[in-house]
Amino acid sequence: MDEHTVFLPRAEANRLLEALAGSGFGRILGPVARDGTLLFQPIKDWDDLPVGVRDVQQPGSYRLQQQDDPRCFAWANGPQALKPLTFTPREIIWRAQRSPDGALSFQAAQDDPEPTAVIGVRACDLAALDLQERHFMHGRFPDPWFRKRREALFLVGVSCAHPAETCFCASTSDGPAITRGHDLGMAELDEGYLLWAGTQAGKTLLERLDLDEATASQRRAVEREIHQATVTQKRTLPGRHLKQALYERLQAGHWADVGERCLSCGNCTAVCPTCFCHMEMDEPALNGQSSEHLRQWSSCFNAEHSFMGHFIVRSDTRLRYRQWLTHKLGSWHEQYGRSGCVGCGRCITWCPVGIDITAEAHALLQETPDA
Amino acid sequence: MKPRVSVHKFSSCDGCQLAFINAGPALLELAELVDIVHFAEAGPMDPDAPVDIAFVEGSISTQEEAVRIRRVRESARYLISIGACATAGGLQALRNFNAQGVGDWTRAIYARPEFIESLDTASAISAQVKVDLELWGCPVNAQQVFTAIRRLLFGALPFVDNEKVCQACKRQGIVCVLVTRGTPCLGPVTRTGCGAICPAFGRDCYGCFGPAENPNTAPLARRFQGLGLMPEDIARRFHFINSQAPGFLEEGLDWDQGTP
Amino acid sequence: MREPTDLPWEARITSRVQETRDIFSLKLELVDPGIRAAYRSYPGQYNMLYLFGVGEVPISIVSDPDDDDPLEHTIRAVGRVTHGLERLRVGDTLGLRGPYGRGWPLQAAQGRNVVVISGGLGCAPVVSMIRYMLRRRDDYGQITILQGVKHSHDLIWRRQYQAWEKIRDVQVLLAADQGGPQWPFSVGNVTVLMERANIPPEDTVAVLCGPEPMMKAAIPRLLAQGVDPFHIWLSIERNMQCGIGHCGHCQVGPHFICQDGPVFRYPDIADWIDREGF
After folding, report:
1. Chain CA centroid to CA A23, Å
2. Angle CA(C95)–CA(C97)–CA(C102) in degrees, nearest 5?
3. What does the alpha-carbon distance between residue C212 and residue C272 come to, in Å, rounded to a whole number?
4. Which of A360, B188, C5, C167 counts the highest number of beta carbons within 10 A?
5. Does any CB of chain A come closer than 8 Å to the CB of residue C78?
C-alpha cells in the first residue's frame, strides 16, 4: 500500500473488470472454485470469484469449505497460478520439414499471446515469477515465447490474509503482503477492496477507475490482517540461506530416509512455481515429411532428467530428492542470487504422501556435517 | 521395398488391435508406408511371413500360443508387444495367484471343461521370447504405436515415456483426485502414456499402463491404508490389470494377507 | 525472435568414416553459404545435432575452427539419436545449431607447456585444441598428449597420433586397460602414463577430458607434480537438451554444464567431479 491507495466498494467491484476490459485485456483470469480447488479461469463477473470459499490445506490434502461471508480472496492458493501462463506445460517450439529430395527446413513456432489480466495473484507467485524471469528472460538466451507471454500479462496481486497451514512465505520473506512485481496491488476487506499501483500501467488503470482514497482505518484494518497472516504461519525453513548447510550434508543419512517415503512422482516440481526443468522431444508426422519439436515440463524426479545414454546419474529416489532440495534451497543462490523457494507450500499440499519440505530441511540440518 | 509389418493376436480381448483399426486415416496412411502382411482382425492373413516389425497382442495362456509365439519371433526382425496382456499377462494373469492351477475354475465355470486347454498361468510375451519394445496400456495408445513405427522407419529406436501419470495430469491442469478427494489413485506409480484419461474425468488411475520407472509402491500403499482402504483392497489395487508386472506384483502380495 | 543460433540450420554430410565398431566421424557442411561463412566456433565447444523426426544431441566439435575444412564431429552410437545418426550416409542432411558453451583456455595456455589427458572418446573434444596449437606451434611450449582407452580396439586416430609424435617437442603416450597381442603401447589406466610423461611442473597447463573417475584420479598426480590447480581445465559431459541453459538437465551443483562449461577451471568444479548423483 502507498499514499495513493484507493478504495473500491464491494458493490462496485465489477468496475475493475470493466476497466481492465476497456484497457485492452480481452482475457481476464481469476480464481474459480472448480474440481475441489481454486483454478485460474476466465471470469466475466465478480460473482464468478469464489465468494465465501476457504481452503483447508495439509500435507497431501486439499479441501474447499464454504462460509457465509462476502470475501472472494479468503484462501491461500490452488495448485497453479502464473507458471502455466508464462512457461507453457507443453508447447511446440519449432517445426522441421523434409522435402522429397531430403532437404531440411526449420520454422520457429509463432505465438501471439492475448493481453491477459490476472486477478488474485499472491505475493509468493509474484516472487516466483521474478525468479522464472531471471531464468528464462535474463540470461544469455532470452526465451522469446516466455517473454511474449510475460509481456502480455497485467497482474493484480492480492495480499494474503488467509494463509494455509502449509504456507511459509513469512519465513522466506516473499509474503503475505503484495510489495513488488504487481501492476496493481489489492487487499480485501468485508466492505470492499484497497487498490494501489505498482507500475505505470497500474497507475493508468487506477486513474481510469477514479476512486476515493482509502481511509486510515481501512489501511489499519488491512495491516492488522496481514500481521495476523504473518504470525499465524507455523511452518518455517531453518534459515534463508541454506546452501552451505546443505552442501555440507550431502552424505546425511536423512536423504535415504526421505528417499524411502518419496514416490518420485514429480508432483512437487510440477506445482512449484519456480521449477523450470523441461524436456525437449520430437513428434514426427506419420508420413515422415514433417516433425514438431516440443518442450514440456519435466522433473528432476524422472530418470529422463539425468539419462546419459549409457547410465543414469541419479538412478534412485534418494539422489533425486537430494538434487531437488539442494538445488531449490542451495544452488539457486549461486545461479539466481536467492533461494528457489518462495514459501507457497504447494509441494507440501500436492505431494500424494505429504512430504513436507520444511520438515525435511529441519531434519537434515539436525544431522552433523559430512566428515 | 516397403517394410513389412504383422499384427498377431494371442489371449486378449482384441482391444489393442482395435486401437489400430480405430486410428482410421492414420491406419490408411500407415498402409502407404508399410506392407501389412498379417492382421487377421483387419483382413490380411499370412502369419508365418517374415516381417520387419511384428506387433503382438495378448498373453501366452495356452500350449498352442507358447509354440506359436516362437514362430512369430523367428519371423520378425523387431518384435513389439502391445498392451497389458502382452507386456504383463493382463487381467487373465490373475489366475497365476491360484496355487491349485486353473482346473477347479474351468470345471466350475464351463459346461464342457474338457474343451478348455489352458496353461495354469498367463504370461507376458517377454517371459517366452525376446521382446524388442514394450508398449503398455489397456488398451495401448494408438498414437504411441504409430509414433514407434515412425521412429523405426526413421532408423531410430522408439522412445517410450516411463514417467508417472501425475506429470501428464499436472501438464494438463487436471486436479489431483488423491489430494482433493482422498481417492486411492495409482497415478504416482503408474507409467504415463494414456494422457491421464481417468483423472481427467475425476476418477482415480487404476494402473492400466503398468508400473512407471522407479515406482515406490510401498508408501503409496500405506497412504491408501490411511485413506481407509483395507489390506485386501490395497492388494487388489495392485493386482488388477498388470498384476504380474514387477513392483505391482510384490506390493500386492505384501498386502494380500494383511498389513505388511 | 529467438536467437538465430537456436533454430537448427540444415547441414549436409560430406564425408563419413567408421572409426571403430561403434564410433564414427561425420564431416558436415552448412548448406546455406551465408550461414556457413558466418559460423565460428572455438575449440572445446559443441553443436546440437538434430536427426530429423527423432531429436537432438550435443556433440563436441573436432575440427579446428580456423581450418577451412568442413565441421567435423566424432560420435559414439550409444542412444536413440546417435544410433540413428550412425545410419546416415554422405549426402544425407541433418540439423545443426551452435556452437555452444565455453571452450578450452587457449589464451591461458599460450606460451606455456600443455599436457592433454583424455580417456575413451574424451579424445574428441581435445583434438580441436591440439590441432589449433599445432597450427601455431611456436605459440606453445612442450605438448604432451596422453590418451587411454578401455580396449585396444577402441583406439581411434592411431595414424594421427603417430604423426603428432613426430612434431618437435610433442610427446604422445597411449594406453589401453586391455592391450591385446597387437598392442604396441602401454597397458593400464591413462594415469600410468603420467609416470612416464615428462610433465614440466613449471608453466604447465593441463587439459582433461574423459570419464570423471579418470579425471578425478589424474588431477592429484598433476598437483603432486607441481601443476598449479588454476592451470588445470576439464571438460564435463551431462544430459543436454537445449544447450542454452534453460532445460535444467545438465546441472551439476550450481553449474549449467551447457553454458558455464563444458570446460571448467579445476577449482571451480573440484567439489563436484565424480560425485555420486551430481
Report:
1. 25
2. 145
3. 10
4. B188
5. yes
Interchain contact, B156 vs C52, CB within 8 Å: no
Same domain for B111 and B181, yes or no, is no
Sort out which chain B residues have CB atoms less than 8 A from C54's CB and list them: 151, 154, 156
Measured distance CA(A316)–CA(B181) in Å, rounded: 30
Taking the C-alpha atoms of residue A96 and residue B154, their distance in angstroms, rounded to an integer, is: 14
Q: Among residues 234-273 of chain A, which lie with CB inside 8 Å of chain C?
A: 247, 250
Query: Model ipTM?
Result: 0.95
Indicate if C88 and C112 belong to the same structural domain: no
Do the beta carbons of residue A235 and residue A345 sit within 8 Å? yes
Q: Tell me the per-residue pLDDT of B40-52, one tens digit each, with 9 for 90 and over.
A: 988 888 999 999 9
A residues 90-149 closer than 8 Å to C (CB)? 94, 96, 98, 102-108, 135-136, 139-141, 143-144
Cell of A305: 532428467
- Give the residues across from A196 on adjacent strands: A185
CA C207, CA C200: separation in Å to the nearest integer? 14
Interface test with A, best of C48, C52, C87, C94 (most A CBs within 10 A): C52
Phi, psi (rounded to 5 degrees) for A139: -95, -165
> Is-contact B213 B193, C-beta < 8 A?
no
**Cα separations (Å) of B113 from A160, B11, B118, C163, C218?**
69, 18, 10, 80, 72
Q: Are residues C145 and C260 in the same domain?
A: yes
Pull the grid cell for residue C212.
570423471
Ligand-binding annotation for C242, yes or no, is yes
Vertex A257, ends A256 and A261: CA angle to 5°?
110
Residues of chain C contacting A291 with CB distance shorter than 8 Å: 52-53
Cβ contact (<8 Å) for A90 and B182?
A: no
Is the Cβ of C220 closer than 8 Å to some Cβ of chain A?
Answer: no
Query: B201 to chain C nearest CA, in Å?
Result: 31
Block residue for cell numbers 462476502: A70
CA–CA separation, B201 vs B196, rounded Å?
9
Question: DSSP states of B79-109 as a string?
Answer: EEEEHHHHHH--GGGGGGG-TT-SHHHHHHH
pLDDT tens digit string along B83-122?
A: 999 999 999 999 999 888 888 888 888 999 988 889 999 9
Partners for A (CB, 8 Å, 3+ pairs)? B, C
Q: How far apart are alpha carbons A24 and A21 in whole angstroms?
A: 5
Residues B182 and B128 in one domain: no
CATH of the domain at B140: 3.40.50.700
pLDDT (tens digit per residue) in A60-83: 999 999 999 999 999 999 999 999
- DSSP 3-state of C240: coil
Q: Of C100, C117, C138, which one is at a domain's C-terminal end?
A: C100
Q: What is the mean pLDDT of chain A?
A: 96
A308–C241: do the CB atoms touch at under 8 Å? no
Question: Nearest-CA neighbor of B136 among B98, B86, B96?
Answer: B86
What percent of chain C lies above the pLDDT cut of 90? 83
Residue that terminates a domain, selected from B119, B153, B187? B153
Return the higher-pLDDT residue of C1 and A47: A47
Task: Give the 3-state secondary structure of residue B59.
Answer: strand
Structural domain contains residue C278: no
Calculate the dihedral angle through the C-alpha atoms of B195, B199, B201, B205, rounding to the nearest 10 degrees. 90
- Cβ neighbors of C187 (< 8 A, separation 6 or more) are C175, C176, C177, C178, C179
Grid cell listed for C185 = 603401447
C-beta separation of C245 from C259 below 8 A: yes
Least Cα distance to C172 among C211, C210, C130, C140 occurs for C130
Choose among C217, A19, A79: nearest CA to B178.
A79
